[in-house]
Amino acid sequence: MNTVTSIAELRAELDAARAAGLGVGVVPTMGALHEGHLSLIDRSVAECDLTVVTVFVNPTQFRPGEDLDAYPRRLADDTALASERGADLLFVPAVEEIYPPGFATSVAVRGITERLCGDATRRGHEHFDGVTTVVAKLFNIVQPDRAYFGQKDAQQVAAIRRMVADLNFRVRIETCPTVREADGLALSSRNAYLSADQRERATALVDALRATQSELSDGVRDGATLTQSALRRLADRLAPDDTVEYFEIVDPCSLETVESVDRPALAVVAARVGSTRLIDNFPLEPKTDRPSAIPTTNPIPQGAAI
Ligand code: PAF
User: Fold this and answer.
1) Mean per-residue pLDDT for 33-61?
2) Which domain holds residue 215?
3) Same domain, residue pair 163 and 195
4) Do 27 and 156 belong together in one domain?
């Protein structure tokens, strides 16, 4: 595996690969790779001729108060892991390579990014603007055939899919299932910040999602009823100082709240356990003979309205 730091070097490598007819996959990351990222690399390696892993701690997606300097940076470990899993190229640009002096452009996906984690009160859409801007840049730099993202960041994936459809990027977005610990907790580099007690309480999120799925199988389809029930379960398990930011049943593409789960939906949750913010989600499938419509590749036709 070759590590490159400049756009010019990366493009030279990729131009040669494309001239040889190779299909290119990209796995965008901020490094500190864990099994969740590695599952994305595995999928790209299995499906593409050449896999590029990008490692870039993107300053524009950090919210006010979030400590960019404290974000884990483990390039030696990341290099070893990406190489072991069969990646071909590691792209590790400096901040100035991505945002040179005078950089003034932002790619903002409205609507999808203004609710849930992007709620106006949390100004979270600024975080998503940072994500879509850097992902748009990475797509233009790498020009991949496929790009791999984790289902755990469902809102990020929905925004990226919308951007790809709206801006006619020629890339197929592949969403890979959330990788979980043995007790169900979704893998996240933030899990390391949890104490033993908090770690136990954090499983309330996945348990509430599981319970929602099982209530749905029992025939409860009303979104408000499912939500109230999940919020009660979370309140029973979390400590008074923990906070549930949201639990909602939403459409997987638009992320609008759904009133009744008559078609595939997503149960999404965000909570602070101690000071650690965790998110998770589960697909919800009403019992039907129809095949699943939960998207794993681009569901939005280019130019379509949501
Ligand atoms: O999910 C992430 O790690 C980041 O948001 C991404 C997609 C690499 C953009 O910086």
Assistant:
1) 98
2) 189-284
3) no
4) yes
Q: Please check the confidence at residue 302 and state whether its pLDDT lies above 90.
A: no
Question: Which pLDDT belongs to residue 291?
Answer: 53
- Please calculate the CA angle 289-291-295 and round it to the nearest 5 degrees: 145
Average pLDDT, integer, range 282-286: 95
Same structural domain for residues 154 and 200?
A: no
Task: Identify the residue whose tokens are 């990008």.
Answer: 54
pLDDT tens digits, 169-222 = 999 999 999 999 999 999 998 898 999 999 999 999 999 999 999 999 999 999
For residue 131 and ligand 1, the question of a CB distance below 6 A is answered with yes
pTM of the model: 0.92
What's the token pair of residue 285?
A: 């499938």
125 is annotated as an active-site residue = no
The atom number, within ligand 1, closest to the CA of 30 reads: 3
Q: Is 147 in the pocket of ligand 1 (CB under 6 A)?
A: no
Question: Ligand 1 in contact with 151 (CB < 6 A)?
Answer: no
Residue 160 CA: distances (Å) to CA of 103, 218, 254: 21, 34, 12
Same domain, 57 and 141: yes
